[in-house]
Amino acid sequence: MVINAESLAQVYTAFTAVFNNAFQETETWYERVAMTVPANTRTMDYKFLLDFPMVREWIGDRQVNSLEPKAYQIETKDWEATIEIERNDIEDDQLGLYNPIVAAMAQEAKKHPEKLIAQLLKEGAATVCYDGKNFFDTAHPVGSGTVSNYDPGIETAWYLLDTSRAIRPFIFQLRRGVQLVRMDRPDDEHVFMRKKFRYGVDYRGAAGYGLWQLAYCSTQDLNATNYAAARTAMMSLTNAEGAPLGVRPNLLVVPPILESKAREILNAQFIIGDPSAGGSKSNIWQGTADLLVVPELA
Prior knowledge:
Blueprint: H1 5-25, H2 30-33, E1 34-38, E2 43-45, E3 48-49, E4 69-70, E5 73-75, E6 77-86, H3 87-91, H4 99-123, E7 140-142, E8 145-147, E9 150-151, E10 158-161, E11 170-183, H5 189-194, E12 196-209, E13 215-218, H6 224-235, E14 251-254, H7 259-267, E15 270-271, E16 281-282, E17 290-293
Parallel strand pairs: 1-11, 9-13, 14-17
Antiparallel strand pairs: 2-5, 3-4, 6-12, 7-8, 10-13, 10-14, 11-12, 15-16
């Protein structure tokens, strides 16, 4: 292949097709637990409220709740991945060698928000959210008291989420979407000095915490008893006036090491018990939540 502007444009077009196909075919899970918020500036301020708005019977004037917003800012970050291609490989029509890595770069870029969300989960018991407490905490302020969305222990962490609402437990802030870029002019210094063309992906985005009321973390043993306790804690949440929030946990998130325990709780028809105590019994928790196994939590 003769190296000129036209041939390099054809190379970029071919790589773009490979990239776009791989990007579209890559499945992701982060949309289920995080709401994607388009950003129009570097830093966005999310004023989450301490209480969910509640509907009441309209008698007399409207009852205006004094909702107290908490400033919580998320700053956009820049992300990139870059590869180099030898000039000789382009001249010798060896571009097929690079198609898999271009496709892999697209898959990595599409799934990158999952790494950010997984990191938020792992750091939730030590990172402050909008109410001044850690996202997973035993003393979130509600009204004149405190409530917990964290059950600390010594076992591997697992998480229970309510993803049924418009607002999700996490935020993915997208300033600019993923794009494939190039540095392939024949007179670029890098090409001139090293005979290498560069192709890369980049995007601008960030992840942050949403409503802590929609997430629960436990580092107790993952068993039916502790799973039931987590569900009860979430569904018992109220606003400052004592009205139930109506939280309905529907997603159990675990690292790979807890997959078998999670599947037993959510999918097994029977739970095997102590023969002296009656042996197996029906699993009342079957189907009460979906399961999401996240390798990034390992």
